[in-house]
Amino acid sequence: MTYESILVEQHDAVTLITINRPQALNALNSQVLAELIAAFAAFEADPSQGCAVLTGAGDKAFAAGADIKEMADKPASDFFNEDFFAGWTSHLVKSTRKPWIAAVNGFALGGGCELAMMADFIIAADTARFGQPEIKLGVAPGMGGSQRLTRAVGKAKAMDMCLTGRMMDAAEAERSGLVSRIVPLAGLIDEALKAAQTIAAMPPMAAKVNKEMVNVAFETTLDQGLLFERRAFQILTATEDKAEGMKAFVEKRPGVWQGK
Ligand code: CAA
To answer: What is the pTM for the complete model shown?
Structure first.
């Protein structure tokens, strides 16, 4: 498929996807969504690919939000009837079992912050700025900001961000648990690709199961989560990659994975 609003490159086992509307600070319009859905589906279906990195083109923005110009004249009935924004979570989160990382290279505002939070983790440039400024437009987060941000940073920070619309810099975002690491902007993509290569080199079933386990922690009670974890662990012990991984450890050599 050819894309107009995103760029897709393969770096060995890692798919690098770049939102490519720098003139609009990579604002997320319906074309970006449609192309991201296609790119994530292709990544998920390609057995040669083990991890993806999502970033924004240019030095200024990861994504400055949903496209305000696209939404400005849209009637409420269209937002409702299209279940506007539902596609982001269903395709990029629920249908993507392989891990992916957001490499946030500047503004991640509104839908941009929400998109970054759909990733399995966020690596931020030292110039990154996060925010949920929708209140200033007379609306509120619509792609998960009130839910994922609250789970990531707690009620106090999430309320502060949503109610004042202020931005959080990279240092505050790391302190608050929103991002896993901060790197200088110039090294961001290298660092994210390196982390993604590490993940892509892991046994693929174990990578998917580790991702599922951590995500279950947000959806369930501690007892049910611990049960899910034990059962999933026990199922992994039946895989060929478990036999190979433990044998390779004893023989002091790297494992060679079959993905089964
Ligand atoms: N939608 C559409 N266009 C956008 C945009 C957005 N979210 N953000 C920036 N742009 C466009 C600007 O309109 C401008 O285009 P023109 O040159 O054609 O005028 C271009 O990108 C550059 O932006 P600025 O001139 O504003 O750049 P700046 O450096 O002065 O300011 C900024 C940067 C503070 C990020 C500012 O652009 C801004 O506040 N953007 C909007 C942020 C926002 O409100 N995001 C939330 C959107 S709603 C949402 O996301 C809902 C949801 O929950 C999913």
So the answer is: 0.98
